[in-house]
Every structure is written in C-alpha cells, then in structure tokens.
Amino acid sequence: MKNSRTCPKCGGSNVRISEGGAGAYGSGNNIPIGSFVWQAVPVDRYICCDCGYTEEWIRREHISKIESSKKRI
Fold first, then answer.
1. Residue 65 domain-assigned (yes or no)
2. Residue 67 confidence (pLDDT)
3. Neighbours of 48 (CB within 10 A)
4. How many CA atoms lie within 13 A of 10 on its CB side?
5. Are the C-beta atoms of 73 and 66 separated by less than 8 Å?
6. Is residue 25 part of a domain?
7. In total, how many domains does the chain have?
8. Among 19, 27, 22, which residue's Cα sits nearest to residue 47?
9. Which of 8-12, 39-43, 61-65, 69-73 has the highest mean pLDDT?
10. Do the domain assignments include residue 9?
11. With bands split at pLDDT 50, 70 and 90, how would you rate the model's confidence at 9?
12. Which end of the chain has fewer CB atoms at under 10 Å, N or C?
C-alpha cells in the first residue's frame, strides 16, 4: 500500500497516510527505544478509506535506531 497506493485487501485506491510522531507522555504512533520522547521512532500508518485496512511502516532512516536499540526480543 505504501508504494502502490492500492489496498492489497480490496483493491481500492483511496489510501491516506497518518504520519507517525511522538507527543507528551509517549503519545502518538511510535516505538519507544529509550526513556525520552525524542528517542521514539515514528511509525507511519497507511489507511485504506474504502475498507479500513491499515499497514504500518517505519521510515528507512529510522531502522538503524531500532537495530541499535537495547530493547531486543
């Protein structure tokens, strides 16, 4: 959906993006990788407005922050 702008579930093209961000007390669409709000990695959400399907993507420039994070599974 991110690249094709087409929903993989319904084939719709009414796709919107909700850009990730971090707000007060960790609010927002993000992945916390530290103790402070500026250490969170934003997660962009792509939404099909035809069927409601969503996908979440992390911007390429933020992947290294997650890789170097001490929070590992």
1. no
2. 86
3. 21
4. 12
5. no
6. yes
7. 1
8. 19
9. 8-12
10. yes
11. very high
12. C
Helices (H), the chain: 60-67
Domain that holds residue 26: 1-60
Let me know if residue 43 belongs to a domain: yes
In the prediction, which pLDDT does 10 show? 97
User: What backbone phi and psi angles, to 5 degrees, belong to 3?
Assistant: -90, -35
Residue 5 CB-half CA count within 13 A: 3
State the amino acid at position 32 in one-letter form.
P
**pLDDT per residue as tens digits for the range 12-53:** 999 999 999 888 776 788 888 877 777 889 999 999 999 999
Q: How far is CA 19 from the centre of its chain?
A: 7
The model's pTM: 0.80
Label residue 36 left, alpha or beta by phi (over 0 means left) and psi (-120 to 50 means alpha): beta
